[in-house]
Amino acid sequence: MSQDNAAPASDAGPMIAQGTDEEPLATNQRSLAGRIGLAVTLMAIAYTVFHIYVMNISPLEPWAYRMVHVTGGLFIGFLTYSALTLNPEAPAVARSRSPIEWGLIGVAAAGVLYGAVMVGYAWAGRWFGFAPMPDAFVFGTYGLPLLIGTIAAVAAAWLFSDRDRERVHPADWLLGIAALAMFGYIIFNVGALRLRAGTGMAQTADFYAALVGVILILELTRRVAGLALVIIAGIFIAYSFVGPWLPGFLTHRGYTAERFFTYIFTDQGILGDPIAVSSTYIILFIVFAAFLQASRVGDYFVNFAFAAAGNMRGGPAKVAVFASGLMGMINGTSAGNVVATGSLTIPLMKKVGYPSKSAAAIEATASSGGQILPPIMGAGAFIMAEVTGIPYTEIVVAAIIPALLYFVSVYFMVDLQATKLGMKGIPKAELPKFRALAKQAFLFLPIIILIYTLFAGYSVIRAGTVAMASAAVVSWLTPYRMGPTAVLKALELGAKMSIQLVAVCAAAGIIVGVIALTGVGARFSSLLLGIAEQNQLIALFFAMCISIILGMGMPTTAAYAVAAAVVAPGLIQLGIPVLVAHFFVFYYAVMSAITPPVALAAYAGAGLSGSDPMKTSVEAFKIGLAAFIVPFMFFYSHELLMQGEWIDIARVVGTALLGMYLLSASVQGYYFGAIGIILRIVLLIAALAMIEGTWYTDLFGLAVAVGLFFYQKRVVTPRTLAKGAD
């Protein structure tokens, strides 16, 4: 970025953040140029415009709309993301292909194109009137060749994909065509499929379309989100067939392939709640984020954080907390947050004295909080609203205090570590000027407008659309005015940013569908009830562990969708309010991003800092430890979710903040001076005493905090305490 985003450098000081808003390419993401690049760009713009038009002007039948959403994501995704890691240095020239590669491509082309032609023939007959319903031969023969061709195309892409960023392998074109053929069959038969899918009446042709769709979704998920979610989805799919041979609450009667796969491709599975949310709220707010990025608001947020906190002790770490919180408003992914802000904050943290693993862990822990920060809480919050029926505005209000406690706990951790190590901040001369940046606070207007419209009674879709338009208008008050070209670029970026979540939500839908079909969620609830009869705290701990394990290696969206289907119903049966139960599992789904051994946000930070990924994830877990207590706090004190009288809410928040500080001091071993293991244990007990939220436990924790303060300040000593006991 050649200019700062709001004011000349001479007025606002050095602009540390430059190019924060630029979306970095994934290691397997193509950068297409020429006619192919133009074609993909136009498809991406059309994809975004279609969604905005349907959501605001002309609603479409839900199955058809969601199928367009999934199919468009698949087609653009296969052209944008390679099956293999790309080499930026590879020359963009055609290479010779081996006979085996040509053989796989030939099989793929023959099968996929035959299936596509058969489906196209059926549509032509309907459109032109010569065959409103095709002969049995058409749909009776399209499926197997399409399936074989799809598998061959996946294999060809795995084994032989081109390594340069400017070429699309023929197999990826064929996978896109397979997605269109699958879409064409399902939409052609959508009325009948609503009645027979997932039943004994499901036809073989239905099965082939659904199976091809599942293969395509899992392959794109592997490309954009890694193997973890694919493996978990594969385990759930296998569970649907091996259930009769499993013991205990895992057993079920088993299902035929036709019934299973056709059931999965309904609104009980892939087209269910995750994709319903992805095709409406998620893509809308991703486009909103793209508009903010086009006007360089992200750079402003990060520079604002540097101006506010950069000069404090351990300044860059506190900047990471503030900046990640602000970026979390417009970036709903933990790893994305780490990459966006960590590229700036991690080197500066290392510069002022933080070890590499600590710098990466602080950024990962702070960035993960973007998922729970209102008003845009990542995709999980929208799924929560869809699943529970609770208005999104209520969820936003309930999230305020838990988000505050999360970021405050991380702040305490980094502040105490900086104090213990004697760190200093960045000199003011090297920082942006706060007063100058404060004059550009109008850049927060799109966020403010979003909040106002949400609470003024607008629907979430209308509020997001208005906020998106306001971002374009506000850009005209900056050097980065959004003209037609910038608007089109934002629409393109919005579509490409949404591809990952389309794939993830579709894969999560597979898992949710398996849970609904087999009834394992209900049986897990019964198991949880049995544990709760012995001890409710143990049941909650068990639910926490399951939520974290389900989320390991998975994006937060999928982690919450699965935990909401498996764990939340059991908590609700324990008598826990719906909002509290879903927030409980949502919080731990977010925490899975920093929980070893598979901690995606910590791994992203380790890549930037050059630290060991496992050591970084352990350090991130330690820094975020206080946040792991928060769900138990709002279980015992519903006031933390804004439920109750204001005086009670204020008391519980005050004691919760003190509890966070005591826990952070215990973890860091520093409470107004270094403390030993015994005092750390005492502080830990005092912090945990505040979880229950009663007056007695709060007074106990407060007494311990005050007593240890005087002890550390040497106002009292062990000898004076002993005299007082005589």
Characterization of the model:
The protein is mostly helical. The protein contains 34 helices and no strands. The chain has helices at residues 9-12, 34-56, 62-80, 99-128, 136-141, 143-160, 170-188, 190-196, 204-225, 227-242, 257-264, 273-294, 297-309, 315-328, 334-352, 356-368, 378-388, 392-421, 434-438, 445-455, 460-474, 484-518, 520-534, 536-551, 556-566, 568-573, 578-591, 600-609, 613-623, 625-636, 646-668, 677-689, 695-712, 718-725. The radius of gyration is 27 Å and the shape is globular. Mean pLDDT is 84; it is low at 1-10.
Features:
globular, 726 residues, 34 helices
What's the SSE blueprint?
Elements: H1 9-12, H2 34-56, H3 62-80, H4 99-128, H5 136-141, H6 143-160, H7 170-188, H8 190-196, H9 204-225, H10 227-242, H11 257-264, H12 273-294, H13 297-309, H14 315-328, H15 334-352, H16 356-368, H17 378-388, H18 392-421, H19 434-438, H20 445-455, H21 460-474, H22 484-518, H23 520-534, H24 536-551, H25 556-566, H26 568-573, H27 578-591, H28 600-609, H29 613-623, H30 625-636, H31 646-668, H32 677-689, H33 695-712, H34 718-725
Please report which band the strand proportion falls in: under 5%, 5-15%, 15-25%, 25-35%, 35-45% or over 45%: under 5%
Largest sheet: none
Overall pLDDT level: 84
Class of secondary structure makeup: mainly alpha
